[in-house]
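Encode chain A's predicted structure.
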Amino acid sequence: MWRSPVARTVRDGEAGGSNPLTPTIFNFSLSLSMPYYVYILQSKKDNKFYIGSTSDVSNRLAYHNAGLQRSTKNRIPFKIVHAETFENKKEALLREKQIKAYKGGNAFKKLIKEGVAPPDRNGGAHRSGR
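Encoded structure for chain A:
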């Protein structure tokens, strides 16, 4: 069965290309990670909050405000009230889960009001992009 070379996944250090005698080696570094963000939006319609994560906060806000997100389309428009930057998606998703766990509580209210993030596991504070 023929497979398109585009559809084939090339893993770190795996040979690519069509000539097995002179393969092209793809060596992707895992240290090159894109920043990822956790954001909190507030609806201008009902003042309720939405917590999410993304690699591009501006585009994600536009996506929400265009009514393309099913869970928020009836509450547009939104404004960004808080954002935090992380080195990778995994860290951002962990933080998103943490914020959602205390949504509505005192820690959430403090985060929205003062932009103060609780200390992370290493004792430092998360960076706020507010």
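The chain has three helices and six strands.
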